[in-house]
Amino acid sequence: MGTRLLALAPWLLLLLLQLAGASHVVHRSLEAEQAPSSVPASIVSPLLRTGYHFQPPMNWINGPLYYKGWYHLFYQYNPKGAVWGNIVWAHSVSQDLINWIALEPAIKPDIPSDQYGCWSGSATILPDGTPAILYTGIDRPNINYQVQNIAFPKNASDPLLREWVKPAYNPVATPEPGMNATQFRDPTTAWYADGHWRMLVGGLKGARRGLAYLYRSRDFKTWVRAKHPLHSALTGMWECPDFFPLQAPGLQAGLDTSVPSSKYVLKNSLDLTRYDYYTVGIYNKVTERYVPDNPAGDYHRLRYDYGNFYASKTFFDPVKHRRILLGWANESDSVTYDKAKGWAGIHAIPRKVWLDPSGKQLLQWPIEELETLRGKSVSVSDKVVKPGEHFQVTGLGTYQADVEVSLEVSGLEKAEALDPAFGDDAERLCGAKGADVRGGVVFGLWVLASAGLEEKTAVFFRVFKPAGHGAKPVVLMCTDPTKSSLSPDLYKPTFAGFVDTDISSGKISLRSLIDRSVVESFGAGGKTCILSRVYPSMAIGDKAHLYVFNNGEADIKISHLKAWEMKKPLMNGA
């Protein structure tokens, strides 16, 4: 997948390596350069550039993999400047998914089938341990005519995989008559079963049917399209599909993509909404069909993240036997602001994913390596916050922090009834019932808040009465950045998702990763996740504060809170 790319930014690292800049601004109302010519000083402040979120000047994530002691991350980027075109695969490596070193681009347009751009793809480890990259190439000028190519390491003994070669038999898959050649991209990691390799390619049939084309190969060289897609739905174009097996419910270990399982995840990035959706279901390798467990799942689907999170990829980590999710978040300011800053776009913190004990959804949690960045800490226990009050967490810097809190509400009977007019539209409900709407049961954190609360970003829960006899209370998790900044011309949407948890005991947990201009939160142990971009003008650096707030009618107890200052990685693209 390709997209708009923005300004370049140097990265002086170990060995004097350099990265260059790019971004993807998906909020169409902000894509035109209509921002004022005078850019507020706070917008270009280096204190808004993330400290511990990996911030290469990057775009869609391509083919993460682990090889000979190194994690490899590829991402799309334009080495020639802040314009669309010349797409290559930039390349960074790490030994812990936290500290990254930039290498030279891995894949560049240099064969006929990718001469106009190297777009998204995935990596597969072959049985002999050799990695292979399947990726989308653009082979015609002035039209995004998409074909699928393959590349192999030039020297498989090089653990850094610095050079790649493309065999003469490329492309390995091309659009057939009747297929939309401009909506045919993003091959997945391949899996092997019964003598055949299989891969998926995202596509669009007609105006609305998104689908995952299925291709098979005996030799990883000649690929043949199956008669029917693995799955499809009337949702619009499916970008960046991902398909992987799961362990039994509740087991946190991951599985290699080729290991058969009774449960699978099929994910796609929906071009129409710029969100990542997934379903849990069953894969029948005889019929080559995937069937979601929830019959309505294709249209009321789960999301990895209910905030600013798109074009993600997972990969199996053979060292720690886990499946890791990598995603990215664009900026939510204007193009003009991004150019003035000289940087745009970040990675979310890598997340471990596994199947919830219910078997209905995934759980997600920041990888354990992140904890190596924790520094000075403070703890709070058994603190009651009365209705309408807030409590400040002091004793550490909170503009770059990791906060874990367990909360308990004592009066769930005071919860509001859920207006059926909102249906299952969590975002609309949060927009109407933002953090400052008092009453009922509503509580959470104010992060990146100014001393006078002129600026604050709320991450909170609102609880509603059970919908019927025997039902459990309904829990809504929201991030409300509407008061996050006094700077003009910012896109400040509320993000929200329902949390499938039983709060009848009154207990719930929240973790928020606060990093200057990003707030990444995990509700109820990772059942619901929300990432939001914010750009404070006052709550910057040591002027940023952290509070627990209660805008409801029942007491809230901080059972336990622990917050850590977070150090910057030695190498992270900053």
UniProtKB/TrEMBL annotation:
<dbReference type="InterPro" id="IPR001362">
    <property type="entry name" value="Glyco_hydro_32"/>
</dbReference>
<keyword id="KW-0325">Glycoprotein</keyword>
<dbReference type="Pfam" id="PF00251">
    <property type="entry name" value="Glyco_hydro_32N"/>
</dbReference>
<keyword id="KW-0378">Hydrolase</keyword>
<dbReference type="InterPro" id="IPR013148">
    <property type="entry name" value="Glyco_hydro_32_N"/>
</dbReference>
<dbReference type="GO" id="GO:0005975">
    <property type="term" value="P:carbohydrate metabolic process"/>
</dbReference>
<feature type="domain" description="Glycosyl hydrolase family 32 N-terminal">
    <location>
        <begin position="53"/>
        <end position="366"/>
    </location>
</feature>
<dbReference type="InterPro" id="IPR013320">
    <property type="entry name" value="ConA-like_dom_sf"/>
</dbReference>
<keyword id="KW-0326">Glycosidase</keyword>
<dbReference type="InterPro" id="IPR050551">
    <property type="entry name" value="Fructan_Metab_Enzymes"/>
</dbReference>
<dbReference type="InterPro" id="IPR013189">
    <property type="entry name" value="Glyco_hydro_32_C"/>
</dbReference>
<protein>
    <recommendedName>
        <fullName>beta-fructofuranosidase</fullName>
        <ecNumber>3.2.1.26</ecNumber>
    </recommendedName>
</protein>
<dbReference type="Pfam" id="PF08244">
    <property type="entry name" value="Glyco_hydro_32C"/>
</dbReference>
<dbReference type="GO" id="GO:0004564">
    <property type="term" value="F:beta-fructofuranosidase activity"/>
</dbReference>
<keyword id="KW-0964">Secreted</keyword>
<feature type="signal peptide">
    <location>
        <begin position="1"/>
        <end position="22"/>
    </location>
</feature>
<feature type="domain" description="Glycosyl hydrolase family 32 C-terminal">
    <location>
        <begin position="369"/>
        <end position="565"/>
    </location>
</feature>
<dbReference type="InterPro" id="IPR023296">
    <property type="entry name" value="Glyco_hydro_beta-prop_sf"/>
</dbReference>
<keyword id="KW-0134">Cell wall</keyword>
<comment type="similarity">
    <text>Belongs to the glycosyl hydrolase 32 family.</text>
</comment>
<keyword id="KW-0732">Signal</keyword>
